[in-house]
Amino acid sequence: STDNTGSNGALHTISATSANGAIALDTAGTERLRIDANGRILLNFNTPPRRIANVNAHVQLEGVTEETSSISITRNSDNAGPPRLNFGKSRGTVVGIGTTIVHDGDNLGEIRFSGADGNDLTNHAARINAEIDGNVGINSTPGRLIFSTTSANGSDPTEKLRITSDGKVGINTTIPTANFEVTGNPGTATT
Questions:
Q1: How far apart are CA 98 and CA 170, in angstroms?
Q2: What is the CA radius of gyration of the chain?
Q3: DSSP alpha helices (H): ranges in 67-146?
Q4: pTM
């Protein structure tokens, strides 16, 4: 542990200097957090990190109960403001200063839902994407939402529903021309 005094006060550094070094924090004799040699943050487990939805994420949380496998975001304020989970995307190549303009079709964020198939957790059953849907300009980023699911015999989700930047909804079509468009055999619904 070292102290490096800067213009904003002291910077306290805890170092693991070996090539395979890791830093672990324990409470009540149990490891709760680990930063591995690759900079990944592992919460509630100390085994090698896993690829989930085919991504070896830099922040991983694993547990065996609802409480140890959940993340909560709560805002307590006397107003209508919500808590937020923010995704950001630029075409910049430098961390911390990226503001290079995104392009039509760029994926701004993705939520993946994966289930164990007896082998791994790399395939995902469903996903939600937010993409740019048109020309981008200063303070103008038109967007679309895409909902995808995996068929019974598939290994990857395919698009099933799209909401475009102009409010059109398409089911089984990527270019809805009406406010609500269903492509293919819509079938018959009974109640």
A1: 33
A2: 22
A3: none
A4: 0.77
